[in-house]
Design brief:
The complex is a heterodimer of chains A (277) and B (308). With 277 residues, chain A is mainly α. Chain A has 14 helices and no strands. The relative contact order of chain B is 0.12. Classes of the chains: A mainly alpha (277), B mainly alpha (308). Chain B: It is found in: Cell membrane.
Chain lengths: 277, 308
Amino acid sequence: MQRKKGFVNKVTIHVLLIIGALLSVFPLYWMFVMATQPNHVINKLPPAVVPGDKLVENFQNVLENVDFFGAMWNSFIVASLTTLGVLFFSSLAGFAFAKLQFKGREKLFAVILITMMIPPQLGLIPQYFIITKLGWLNDLKAIIVPGLVNAFGIFWMRQYIKDAIPDELIEAAKIDGCSIFRVYWNIVVPSILPAFATLGILTFMFVWNDFLWPLTVLRDESSYTIQIAIRALQDAYVKDYGMILSGTFWATLPLVVVFLMFNKLFISSLTQGSVKQ
Amino acid sequence: MVSHNHTNATVRPKGLSDKKKTALAGYLFISPFFLLFAIFGAFPMLFSFYLAFQKWNGFGEMTFVGVKNFSLIFTDPLFWKSIYNTIVIGLLGTGPQLIAALILAVALNSAMVKFKSVFRVAYFVPNVTSIVAVAIVFTVLFSEQEAGLVNATLGLFGISPVSWQTSEWGAKIAIATMIFWRWVGYNSIIFLAGLQSIPKDLYEAAEIDGAKKWQQFLFITVPMLKPIIVFVVFTATIGSLQIFAEPLIFGSGFREESMTIVLYLWREAFSNNAFGTASATAVSLFLLIIVFTTINFFASNRLDKSGK
């Protein structure tokens, strides 16, 4: 009796989890299905749920409508450079807050924590005019430069460096005549590689998927990131959904593939980042 | 002790300059943040407060208009509608989602589940998808056509097609579904991490005392998860107040049924060139976030007290 009840429970839980997993993956699968179908299928009953034969043709239509690879490249440049900047400047500042003595250290760190609570939309309009004044409208610099270092990155790096590196190691290196930057470069950087991986994934994903700010400052097609480019596809007057979802599918695929390859690292990075925040 | 003092004394001159060097390096290393924050964070924020009291089209002169921007938006029904929509979409998108996430997490945490890592990946993958992509896919899923996938599925149950994009509740439910889909797995994995940190012997003790499974859930699991639940509710609340991309893409512009407060702000600024009222909206949003954060804060404090 007891055993039978356990079996029923086991089946119920698995059925629940499998239904959840299917619902979770289905929209992505369906994105692929639509990317392979001609436009008129969208109004056909019953709806298509298996791939058609328009995979190549739909993507060719995407290429005719937006500079897909240019936008991918822009996204890649923006996300990579921002990530490099965040890793470098945040770890440098995190190191200072964790290990270097200077006056006002705790107060300045508290200021950084407070800045995390300001909603980004509050300064959106003046930010737009600053970018205009700098002549950076339609320039990838408008995305990269303001994002080069952020409060969360500094907070994250400080916590990590504080625990990961013993003070004695730093003192010893200083006595050996290392400059402080050398201490950072030769001792801190090699021992915080896991923190770089976590913060790197968080930052890259955030910048790659960001929408509001790029939409505000990138108005010219040549400067579009991939998110703005697929939005432009969808915004066209005549809607060819096979084409729109083809663009969306190919824009989504790279990150999903990288996620599947490194899923453990991704999941722990993205959830850790949030819990510790 | 004596010898220690002695060493200190002999290296003092060098020690002092070392201290200064360290401090200098410290200031230098943290300066990039403060420099960038001054230009792209603090100044814009303060300037928003200034602009909220000016009339400005982005090109000509600014003129001081006092609180007129605020009275303009406060008498605009669409502004209130956008706040109402934001709250309704936020509640619809996060309330059921957090409950579902908790159920999924408890199911995943059960010892008898096989292929846990496969489930984790499947639940997490929506969160890697960009909001733009999600909004586009769901626009097609929630097509107004009878042949739209959601309408066709409802049709199987004899429910007549819903105009998802142009009806008051349709638009809200569709947008809330997008939020649900993108975050439920993410939050269930956060809950799962919390569940795994609850000591097993608590459940064993309850079992011995004859507590049923649902009692264990209500009186052990939920209280032990409280810090994580509070955190998730905090982030979800602030995230909900900033919904922008979904209604912009789903409603194909600025439809009334799906107008949110950030969308209203964006429309005032970049579609109507009314930067004064847009800034007044930004300030109002800021105050709204403070209000909601405070409510959250007091609610979680009260829970704390009643829990003890």
